[in-house]
Each structure stands twice: as structure tokens, then as C-alpha cells.
């Protein structure tokens, strides 16, 4: 059951009064299929592409003119209620301020062939015209396109392509403030403490609405959004109806750059500007209290966001729509990304024996959908391990004892032996021996007693490890084993050994020979339990752990991060710099240069909710131990979201939700380009090029003769990885020793220790002296 706030729209449905619609073509002879029908409020009338005489060929497009500029963040497409013909399959969305200049698509993707309404999100931005183009018909039934209704969504409170502006030296003044009965001064919105607030004057005769607060940045700054954090200690004074205006001199304020009405809850709100404003003074004017409780206004914190600098903050691509919520993903050779949800594209439940899957072609951006029935396995809430031969092993979940294998070479799924213990939310890793290890997973099957077992690639069967109970690795979650043995962080080392380094605050060494064993590796520094945080191997024997919460849900997340260094049988944990934002349900990805990017998550974890979403990604630098902000995300990525390093050095971030008829399903994703690939103007930096010498397979301990298009500084292996539920135990970065042997020629040594370079498929990157990576070549090390 989704929580109540998951059922509330993340963005308001815009008022369609005065809107008009036109189409590339429409049917007016055989039926009333005019474009205007998508705005008439009736699902019984439709727009249909021309089909009498010679049908108009695909693609077909329909354009909505709002006749005013508004912040738009999504198009809601409702297929016709009767008949399947004309359902949109592959689509593109463009926006325009003038109806003439359209630029690149803001969203692309593929829709499921069904009658459900589809919300097609994109980065919030000011526009007057929005165009939906149907490239294909969903069922390939003919050259037709149809729609019963089209809505547009407004500002969701998630600014895109912005970064938090530093507040050093800023001051704040207000139209009025309470100073008699409490410290309600305007300055409190800039002090970094959510427990202190600005409050309008209420002692004596309360100051009437409207109330305003003005931030003086003391310098002219490009500003594109205002972030408002309501008070934490009660509802009185929450801002409802508002406008934002700007000024260069503090006297003359222009027309509003943002306006709207915020919901009556305690979540952080954002006012995205319809245009970037170069201003010194930014004024928030509140004309209505959100709950109509009285003539009051309050605020805990106010922040401003400005346009991102690509060279410092990176940039986001268009939103790519999926025909399902990508809850689990795996990177495949051939520039493909495998994704799956559950038995349904947007919800889970039961043990139905089949799974909805999709594959994103990273070269073309096209997404294909397929239902997998032959393994009898609903693979929601699984364990995942990338095998030594490049196949993907998926275990448990809704069909809790099942195990399935995907082979990217044949694009085929097959069943392997059932596990001895039924599991869901379990942890998995490949071992240095080429076997796969699994532990925990009380979400499915009988809670508790989810001891370890090992899968053999030779026999396709599992053997129990009675010496590896899950209890020593569990957190102290108040819901017991059901939540306490979920999503463990595992790092495989030499000799079939594994370090379990979280989310429990107690770390453990695990051996997998014979009956196996589990022994204490000491605490993770001064960390508490950190469920739904994660760990990332950023160097050989070096890991970074990030975020999490003492319980699976409803406990505040942490900003803390730790490094864990492995030296033989010792695991030493140390606290590194804190993240700028507390987060649970986030995802982290190690980059070829050794830095770690973290995306999404919530400050207060609640499954299927987008409240307290963190929209600012961060980048951790192992050289300094510090986190720095990256360009903000257009879509929240929380529970059931994923992130993966791609072969071109960029990162896919997507998913979230899977709660059925709710507003927090995010059947989409976007690709983030890290700053190491970009110049300040957003143009791509020159990159090293690997021209040859990378065989499809190589043994551990061998040397490669790699040729490049020019000089490079280093080489690194990045393991092709799989992610689900904030966890990716397949990630591994292995720097390689290399020697120049001539112009553009290098001897590159692959480590002999399979505990360092686990068997499996890797991406080989070359990096220049500035840390700019090449496009990778795939190689399977065994």
C-alpha cells in the first residue's frame, strides 16, 4: 500500500483555459478526429491522424499552445478509451517559447501498449508551446496515432540544470517579523539551521497577509529558482499562494518570475523561474497560508539556485521514458542497458512467475520491452551478480527461491537451480572462485535464518553455508529480520573471502569454503547502522560508504560517509567528509578517475514517497575527502531507483516508485555527463581514444599491448555492474600498471589476483593527464 503522499501529484495540473491544439494531420472525414478534442475534457472524443484515402504516414505530431508562458515539467498522454489503434509507442517531446524554435527533444522514450494514462516527464522549464511527436504506433498495427486527452503539469519543485548558490555574505529582510514572543527574524532563513525560523508578526495585532521576505545576495547573480523549506515544528505559517520577483537595486521589482500555490505539508518546495534572472535582490511574497489557518507566514530556510557550470557541475541529457519502472538494471556489452520491474510495469505483488523487462540501446536511445515467462520467475526485489562469463544471475524476490540467468550474447533468459532458502532483498556478489555468494533476504519467505549459500557455475546448483548465519550481519531495525538483513554491502576478496561492511555498523569477514564462517571485522568507525545507504569500491581494497538510516524507513538519514581500507585480514574504517545532504535510498557510482558520484535519496526515508527528496547530486574526491555539488536532477530518484556507469564514462540515473496508481512512479531515466567530460560552455572535451589491442577475453595476470590515438596517462578497469535498491556490489575500479612502449602504444598489466580483478566483464578506460576518460572497450577477464 502506497502512503497517502505518494498518491498526491508531484506537480500541479495546469489550467487549460484558453489553450488550443493543432496537429501535423487529423482525421475529419471518416470521424471527428480533430486535434482540439484532446483539450475538451472528454475521453470519448479523440484526435486521430488522417486515415481516409491515403493515410498520413508516421511520425505524427500534436502541439499544445497555452497562449502564455508557464513552467512545464510533464505531458500527460491519455490513450483512446475504445480500441487499440493509434496508441503512441516511441515518442519525442519538444517545447518552445515562440512556436518557431524547438531545439532538441526534452524527452524521448517508448510507451507500453495499454490504456493507462502516461506521464512523460522532462526538466522543468518555461515554455508556451509543447509538442508530442509519435514516431511509432505501440502495437505496430498501422501508421496511426490517436489521443483522447492531453494535460500538462507545472512546477514540481525540482529545478533542473541548476546548483545551490553559496549564501556567504547574504542578508534577509522582511515586510514584518516576530521579535516579541519568539525569535522570528528574517535572518534565520539563512543560518543553515532548520530549527530557527522567520515568522510574520503575530504579537499584538497580527500583521495581515501578504507577507514578504527579501534576500540580498550583495552581488548581481544569475538566479533560476528559489527553494523554500517550511518550519519543522508545526504547520502554522506554511506558505501557500506565492509570487517571486527580482530586482537589481532593491527598489524596482519586475513582473513575477515564478508564482503558484504550494501544498500544505512540510516538504521542501521549489519555485522554478520561467526565465533566468540576473538580480541582486530576490523577494518571496506569500499571499495565502497553505492551510488557511490564519494570517501568518513562516520559513525555516531559503536557498537560491543558479545555472550550472558544466565544467564544474556536469550536465543532464533529456529524459528517456521506459515502458516500465526500472527497479533493477545491468550494463551490457554492445552499449545496452538491461532493466526490469516486476510482474507488472508499474507495481509489484504476489508470485506471478514472470517479469517485465526492457533494454535501452545507448547508441540510439530506443527502448524495447519484453515479458519473460520461460523461467517462471518474478524477479522483483532480487539479488544480482555479474558472472565470470558476462552473464547476469538474478535470484529470489517475489518468486523467492528461483534463480534466472540472462545471456547478453544470445539475448536469452534461462532458469538455473533454485536456492535452498527463499529470499528477497538479499545481497549477492561474485567470488574470486567464479562462484556466486548470497546472504540475507527476509523480505521474502519466512523471516530470519537467511544464512549464506553459494552457486556453482559448473553445476548450476546451490550449496548451503551453515557456518554463515545472517544474524551477525543484521542491523537493529525495529521491524526485526524482515528489514534487518536487507541489501547488505559485500566486497569479495582473494580465496573466496568476502567483507560484509554494512549496512550494519558491525563489519564481518566471511569465508565460503566448506561450511563457511563469519567473524567480526570490527565496527565501521563511529557509524550507526546505515540501511539503504551503500558502499562503492573506488580503488583496490578501498571502499567508500555513504548515507543510510538506522532503520529501513521513518528514521532520519545521515550525511556521514566513511572509507574502509582492506589490508590482509584487517578492515580499517575512517570517517571522511560529510555529504552536503543527508540521504537514504540514494545511489552511488564510482568514475574511472576514482571519484564517486551520489544521486538522489531522501533526508527522511519513506518508501514510495518523494517527500524530502534530495535533488542535488554530489561528487566525492578521494584526494580531498570532500563532496561538491553537481547539477540538480529534474526527477526525484528515491526508493526503487538505480544508477550505473556507462561505457562512455557517463552515468545513467533512473527509476523510483513501482507503487501502482500513485504519483511517484518514475518510468524514466536520464544520462548525466560528469564535469570531467565538459568545457565551461558545455562542449565536450577532447578525449583519449583506444584504437586497438583489447581482446574480447583475457586471463588474469596477462599483459595487453594497447594502442591509443595519442598519449595517455593511465588505464583502469571498471567492472560492468548491476544495481537495485541502492545497492551495487558489482561495482569495482581497478587501476592498472602500464608502460609506454612507443608513440601511442602501451603495455597494460592485468592483476593476477582474482580477488583484485574478480572474474567477469570489464570496461577498459584510458585517461589523459587531466583525468578525462576515453570511451571504454569491453573485455572479459577470467
UniProtKB/TrEMBL annotation:
<dbReference type="InterPro" id="IPR009880">
    <property type="entry name" value="Glyoxal_oxidase_N"/>
</dbReference>
<dbReference type="InterPro" id="IPR011043">
    <property type="entry name" value="Gal_Oxase/kelch_b-propeller"/>
</dbReference>
<feature type="domain" description="F5/8 type C">
    <location>
        <begin position="158"/>
        <end position="307"/>
    </location>
</feature>
<dbReference type="InterPro" id="IPR013783">
    <property type="entry name" value="Ig-like_fold"/>
</dbReference>
<dbReference type="InterPro" id="IPR014756">
    <property type="entry name" value="Ig_E-set"/>
</dbReference>
<dbReference type="InterPro" id="IPR008979">
    <property type="entry name" value="Galactose-bd-like_sf"/>
</dbReference>
<dbReference type="InterPro" id="IPR037293">
    <property type="entry name" value="Gal_Oxidase_central_sf"/>
</dbReference>
<dbReference type="InterPro" id="IPR000421">
    <property type="entry name" value="FA58C"/>
</dbReference>
<dbReference type="GO" id="GO:0005975">
    <property type="term" value="P:carbohydrate metabolic process"/>
</dbReference>
<feature type="domain" description="F5/8 type C">
    <location>
        <begin position="1"/>
        <end position="155"/>
    </location>
</feature>
<dbReference type="InterPro" id="IPR006652">
    <property type="entry name" value="Kelch_1"/>
</dbReference>
<dbReference type="Pfam" id="PF09118">
    <property type="entry name" value="GO-like_E_set"/>
</dbReference>
<keyword id="KW-0732">Signal</keyword>
<protein>
    <submittedName>
        <fullName>Arabinogalactan endo-1 4-beta-galactosidase</fullName>
    </submittedName>
</protein>
<dbReference type="Pfam" id="PF00754">
    <property type="entry name" value="F5_F8_type_C"/>
</dbReference>
<dbReference type="InterPro" id="IPR015202">
    <property type="entry name" value="GO-like_E_set"/>
</dbReference>
<dbReference type="Pfam" id="PF07250">
    <property type="entry name" value="Glyoxal_oxid_N"/>
</dbReference>
Amino acid at each position: 500500500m502506497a502512503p497517502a503522499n505518494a498518491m498526491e501529484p508531484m506537480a500541479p495540473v495546469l489550467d487549460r483555459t484558453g489553450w488550443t491544439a493543432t496537429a501535423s494531420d487529423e482525421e475529419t472525414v471518416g470521424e471527428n478526429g480533430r486535434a482540439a478534442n484532446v483539450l475538451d475534457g472528454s475521453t470519448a472524443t479523440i484526435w486521430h491522424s488522417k486515415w481516409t484515402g491515403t493515410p498520413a504516414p508516421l511520425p505524427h505530431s500534436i502541439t499544445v499552445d497555452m497562449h502564455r508562458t508557464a513552467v512545464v515539467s510533464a505531458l500527460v498522454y491519455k490513450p483512446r478509451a475504445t480500441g487499440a489503434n493509434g496508441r503512441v509507442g516511441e515518442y519525442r517531446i519538444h517545447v518552445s517559447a515562440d512556436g518557431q524554435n524547438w531545439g532538441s527533444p526534452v524527452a524521448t522514450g517508448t510507451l507500453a501498449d495499454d490504456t493507462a494514462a502516461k506521464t512523460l516527464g522532462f526538466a522543468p522549464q518555461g515554455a508556451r508551446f509543447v509538442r508530442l511527436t509519435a514516431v511509432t504506433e505501440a502495437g505496430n498495427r498501422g501508421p496511426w496515432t490517436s489521443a483522447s486527452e492531453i494535460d500538462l503539469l507545472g512546477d514540481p519543485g525540482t529545478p533542473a540544470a541548476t546548483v545551490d548558490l553559496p549564501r556567504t555574505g547574504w542578508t534577509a529582510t522582511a515586510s514584518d517579523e516576530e521579535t516579541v514572543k519568539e525569535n522570528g527574524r528574517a535572518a534565520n532563513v539563512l543560518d543553515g539551521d532548520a530549527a530557527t525560523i522567520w515568522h510574520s508578526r503575530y504579537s499584538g495585532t497580527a500583521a495581515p497577509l501578504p507577507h514578504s521576505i527579501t534576500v540580498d545576495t550583495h552581488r548581481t547573480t544569475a538566479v533560476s529558482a528559489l527553494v523554500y523549506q517550511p518550519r519543522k515544528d508545526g504547520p502554522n505559517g506554511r506558505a501557500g499562494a506565492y509570487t517571486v520577483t527580482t530586482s537589481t537595486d532593491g527598489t524596482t521589482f519586475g513582473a513575477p518570475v515564478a508564482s503558484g500555490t504550494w501544498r500544505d505539508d512540510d516538504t521542501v518546495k521549489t519555485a522554478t523561474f520561467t526565465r533566468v534572472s540576473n538580480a541582486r535582490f530576490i523577494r518571496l511574497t506569500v499571499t495565502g497560508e497553505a492551510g488557511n489557518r490564519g494570517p501568518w507566514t513562516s520559513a525555516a530556510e531559503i536557498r537560491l539556485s543558479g545555472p550550472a557550470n558544466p565544467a564544474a557541475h556536469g550536465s543532464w541529457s533529456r529524459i528517456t521514458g521506459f515502458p516500465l519502472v526500472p527497479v533493477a538494471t545491468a550494463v551490457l556489452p554492445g552499449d545496452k542497458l538491461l532493466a526490469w520491474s516486476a510482474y507488472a510495469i508499474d507495481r509489484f505483488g504476489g508470485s506471478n512467475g514472470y517479469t517485465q523487462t526492457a533494454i535501452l540501446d545507448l547508441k540510439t536511445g530506443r527502448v524495447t520491452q519484453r515479458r519473460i515467462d520461460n523461467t517462471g520467475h518474478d524477479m522483483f526485489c532480487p539479488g544480482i551478480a555479474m558472472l565470470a562469463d558476462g552473464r547476469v544471475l538474478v535470484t529470489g524476490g517475489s518468486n523467492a527461491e528461483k534463480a534466472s540467468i540472462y545471456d547478453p550474447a544470445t539475448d536469452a533468459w534461462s532458469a538455473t537451480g533454485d536456492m535452498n532458502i527463499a529470499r528477497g532483498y538479499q545481497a549477492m556478489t561474485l567470488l574470486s572462485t567464479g562462484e556466486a555468494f548470497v546472504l540475507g533476504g527476509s523480505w521474502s519467505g519466512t523471516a530470519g535464518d537467511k544464512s549464506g549459500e553459494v552457486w556453482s557455475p559448473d553445476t548450476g546448483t546451490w550449496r548451503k553455508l551453515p557456518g554463515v548465519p545472517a544474524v551477525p550481519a543484521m542491523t537493529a531495525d525495529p521491524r526485526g529480520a524482515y528489514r534487518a538483513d536487507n541489501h547488505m554491502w559485500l566486497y569479495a576478496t582473494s580465496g573466496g573471502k568476502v567483507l560484509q561492511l554494512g549496512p550494519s555498523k558491525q563489519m564481518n569477514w566471511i569465508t565460503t569454503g566448506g561450511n563457511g564462517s563469519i567473524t567480526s571485522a570490527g565496527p565501521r568507525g563511529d557509524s550507526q547502522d546505515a540501511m539503504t545507504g551503500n558502499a562503492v569500491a573506488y580503488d583496490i581494497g578501498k571502499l567508500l560508504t555513504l548515507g543510510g538510516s538506522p532503520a529501513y524507513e521513518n528514521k532520519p538519514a545521515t550525511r556521514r560517509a566513511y572509507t574502509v581500507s582492506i589490508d590482509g585480514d584487517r578492515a580499517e574504517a575512517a570517517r571522511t567528509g560529510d555529504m552536503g545532504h543527508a540521504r537514504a535510498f540514494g545511489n552511488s557510482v564510482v568514475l574511472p578517475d576514482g571519484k564517486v558520484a551520489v544521486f538522489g535519496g531522501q533526508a527522511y526515508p519513506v518508501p514510495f514517497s518523494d517527500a524530502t527528496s534530495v535533488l542535488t547530486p554530489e561528487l566525492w574526491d578521494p584526494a580531498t575527502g570532500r563532496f561538491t555539488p553537481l547539477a540538480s536532477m529534474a526527477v526525484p530518484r528515491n526508493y526503487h531507483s538505480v544508477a550505473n556507469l556507462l561505457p562512455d564514462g557517463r552515468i545513467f540515473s533512473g527509476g523510483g516508485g513501482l507503487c501502482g496508481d500513485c504519483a511517484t512512479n518514475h518510468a524514466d531515466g536520464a544520462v548525466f555527463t560528469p564535469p570531467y567530460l565538459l568545457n565551461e560552455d558545455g562542449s565536450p572535451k577532447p578525449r583519449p581514444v583506444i584504437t586497438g589491442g583489447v581482446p574480447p577475453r583475457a586471463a588474469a595476470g596477462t599483459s595487453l599491448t594497447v594502442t591509443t590515438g595519442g598519449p595517455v596517462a593511465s588505464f583502469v578497469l571498471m567492472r560492468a555492474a548491476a544495481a537495485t535498491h541502492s545497492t551495487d556490489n558489482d561495482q569495482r575500479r581497478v587501476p592498472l600498471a602500464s608502460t609506454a612502449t612507443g608513440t601511442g602504444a602501451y603495455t597494460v598489466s592485468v592483476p593476477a589476483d582474482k580477488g583484485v580483478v574478480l572474474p567477469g566483464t570489464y570496461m577498459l578506460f584510458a585517461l589523459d593527464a587531466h583525468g578525462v576518460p576515453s570511451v571504454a572497450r569491453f573485455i572479459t577477464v577470467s
